[in-house]
Q: What sequence folds into this?
């Protein structure tokens, strides 16, 4: 299994005639994802890589039975595009557009809630479920197989680039990914950790979750509060930007702290995570080692074998032999 | 974009929130003039983008125009909370009987705007708000309904308003939300919101932050004399200014947003989370960054070349690290070409100068071939950014 998307996901790309969108549409198709329609107002009848373009989401859904969307349109039009996808009942909607006004984001997220659909992002690279060859967005570029091998680790990242980087590290270490999500780095995103974690808890194919977090906000604080009693699988977290704690901060106003206590500092978030049983690693290179240790502890506790290894159906890759020597992974690399 | 108090008050007035009579000035003479117009006691407030002015001598009273001039002269000559004071706000001194708090900001967990109303205002408000029974009310705003009259009334009532005060204070609540909507503010705070001896309510201070991503559609701000500006908390250095010029050479990709530090290790690092991660790693392995500089979005060879020349021009720079996450769209070969050109233009031989690359991703085979040709040490995607950081920190040390 996987979360959010699978082999039945029929993808609609909003803004498909744009240069970026046309590129990642091709990448998604090459990967094996089912792209069934595109929408660009005024361009109905055109085709992009053989995919029919429609003027409206409504027509695209009727004719092509799309059930999920990728939105890649300029910021000023993003709210309407996302609302149109939500109105069409598409879910999830991966919104890749960056720098959408927050007022618009709040409105489109509220509308998605009303329609009962899930938004990933905005400012997200998308989502990928490797075993299902399903991907919304541009994670892994034109070669997602290299960084995202099928497996049992879920990834949620506040940074797009680090989503691929962390997945690549996990894959290199002989493990693999169930579903990886670029949550989006903005303060308001359609779905936060709290929206993804219950899905990972339910997904039998996900054995552990890795988080890439950054300073600022209270999303991690709230997750730390939620985990005990709700989430039973190992969680490994890494914070990029620890140095920010030591920079002379410019605080402005009090409002955000009144909403909910939380300094935004990584040291405080780290403490809260640790109290919740989340393993916080100091360098991200240590993520595979921490994962392996936590999964082994879990095996010992439950007496059940839960393998972190890649799916057996996949041919063994040379990287698999690295499983036993992660301890030495810090040694400087050799030139190729 | 953070606004000064006087700018916040311009917006407040625009939506009908009452503020004290007053004016922003930038000279002692003008302060005298404004104080003369106001009549009676005035308050002179330093306009800086930091809280806690009061305790730092940034808020002073004057009983007549002459004193207002003197106070302003002193304030413009000093620094408040280590900020140069270029403007002051001269306002009528209020006869305050109550100080409250009213704010609107984004609740990132509930994904809505949230109204905050506290019975106690002032600089200690965030500590007060955490205490149980502190009298802080919070109300999420449904974006499709906004702040209806009844909600404004409830909050006004919570703040202790009665009789006609309910309407007056309720209006301030709904108008503050109108301000947020009209001007795309991500934060708007009235702290303190005061009740004066004559029973009226005013915004004694007003802090507004405009959503940077919405400035493109906020044309009205300029007509009100509020212009887009970049906030760094300090003046940009020469190196940072030149970096920004390089970033503007063409629109393709990001390369040039430089933040300068005191160290000896020049950094060209991947954007967003990756740059945060690499910077941490450099510090962890004992390195001293000379700068922070993200690249992304496939910048041109020319930009990378100029950027490399710039950051290597800083005196005392001994090594260079070009480290990114696994890239999806920035081309490795273009990064390699640009950086090597920049080094050569600076007269640095890549074979001798300590430099490391860890830039895997699109077009990496071509990129690695170029790096090999110039004898540059690099790591591929089977090695982490931490390993590259550790390696460069040890280089040229022995």
A:
């Amino acid at each position: 299994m996987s979360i959010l998307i699978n082999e039945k996901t029929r993808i609609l790309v909003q803004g498909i005639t744009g240069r970026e969108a046309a590129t990642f549409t091709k990448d998604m198709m090459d990967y094996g994802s089912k792209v069934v329609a595109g929408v660009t107002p005024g361009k109905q009848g055109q085709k992009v890589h053989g995919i029919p373009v429609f003027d409206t989401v409504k027509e695209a859904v009727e004719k092509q039975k799309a059930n999920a969307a990728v939105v890649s349109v300029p910021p000023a039009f993003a709210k309407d595009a996302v609302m149109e996808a939500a109105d069409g009942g598409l879910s999830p909607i991966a919104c890749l557009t960056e720098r959408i006004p927050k007022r618009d984001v709040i409105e489109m997220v509220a509308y998605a809630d009303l329609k009962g659909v899930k938004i990933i992002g905005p400012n997200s690279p998308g989502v990928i479920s490797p075993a299902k060859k399903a991907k919304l967005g541009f994670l892994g570029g034109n070669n997602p197989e290299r960084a995202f091998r099928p497996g049992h680790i879920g990834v949620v990242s506040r940074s797009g680039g680090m989503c691929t980087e962390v997945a690549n590290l996990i894959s290199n270490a002989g493990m693999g990914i169930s579903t990886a999500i670029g949550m989006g780095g903005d303060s308001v995103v359609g779905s936060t950790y709290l929206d993804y974690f219950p899905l990972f808890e339910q997904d039998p194919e996900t054995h552990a979750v890795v988080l890439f977090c950054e300073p600022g906000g209270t999303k991690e604080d709230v997750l730390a509060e939620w985990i005990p009693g709700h989430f039973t699988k190992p969680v490994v977290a890494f914070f990029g930007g620890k140095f920010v704690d030591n920079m002379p901060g410019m605080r402005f106003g009090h409002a955000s702290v009144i909403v909910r206590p939380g300094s935004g500092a990584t040291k405080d978030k780290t403490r809260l995570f640790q109290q919740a049983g989340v393993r916080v690693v100091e360098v991200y290179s240590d993520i595979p080692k921490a994962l392996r240790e936590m999964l082994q502890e879990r095996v010992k506790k439950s007496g059940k074998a839960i393998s972190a290894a890649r799916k057996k159906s996949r041919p063994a890759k040379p990287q698999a032999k690295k499983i036993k020597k992660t301890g030495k992974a810090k040694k400087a690399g050799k030139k190729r | 974009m953070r606004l000064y108090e006087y700018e916040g008050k311009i917006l407040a007035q625009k939506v009908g929130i009452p503020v004290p009579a007053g004016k922003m000035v930038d000279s002692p003479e003008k302060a005298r003039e404004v104080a003369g117009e106001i009549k009676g006691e005035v308050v002179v407030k330093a306009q800086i983008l930091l809280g806690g002015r009061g305790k730092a001598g940034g808020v002073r009273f004057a009983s007549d125009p002459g004193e207002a001039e003197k106070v302003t002269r002193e304030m413009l000559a000093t620094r408040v909370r280590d900020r140069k004071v270029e403007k002051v706000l001269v306002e009528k001194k209020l006869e305050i009987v109550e100080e409250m708090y009213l704010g609107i900001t984004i609740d990132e967990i509930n994904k809505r705007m949230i109204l905050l109303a506290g019975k106690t205002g002032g600089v200690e408000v965030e500590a007060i708000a955490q205490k149980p029974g502190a009298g802080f009310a919070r109300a999420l705003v449904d974006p499709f309904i906004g702040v209806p009259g009844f909600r404004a009334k409830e909050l006004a009532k919570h703040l202790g308003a009665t009789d006609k005060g309910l309407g007056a204070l309720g209006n301030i609540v709904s108008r503050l939300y109108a301000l947020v909507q009209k001007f795309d503010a991500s934060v708007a705070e009235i702290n303190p919101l005061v009740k004066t001896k004559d029973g009226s309510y005013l915004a004694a201070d007003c802090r507004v932050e405009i959503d940077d991503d919405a400035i493109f559609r906020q044309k009205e701000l300029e007509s009100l004399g509020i212009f887009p500006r970049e906030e760094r908390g300090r003046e940009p250095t020469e190196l940072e200014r030149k970096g920004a010029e390089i970033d503007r050479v063409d629109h393709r990709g990001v390369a040039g947003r430089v933040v300068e530090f005191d160290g000896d290790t020049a950094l060209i690092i991947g954007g967003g989370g990756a740059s945060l991660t690499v910077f941490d790693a450099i510090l962890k392995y004992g390195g001293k960054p000379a700068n922070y500089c993200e690249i992304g979005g496939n910048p041109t060879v020319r930009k990378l070349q100029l950027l490399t020349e710039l950051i290597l021009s800083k005196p005392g720079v001994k090594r260079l690290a070009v480290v990114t996450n696994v890239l999806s769209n920035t081309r490795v070969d273009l990064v390699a070409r640009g950086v090597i050109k920049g080094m050569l233009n600076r007269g640095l031989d890549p074979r001798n100068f300590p430099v490391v690359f860890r830039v895997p991703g699109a077009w990496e085979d071509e990129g690695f071939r170029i790096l090999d040709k110039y004898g540059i040490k690099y790591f591929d995607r089977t090695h982490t950014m931490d390993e590259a950081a550790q390696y460069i920190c040890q280089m040229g040390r022995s």
Q: What stands out?
A: Chain B touches chain A through 80 residues (CB under 8 Å). Chain B has three domains: 22-92, 96-223, 238-394.
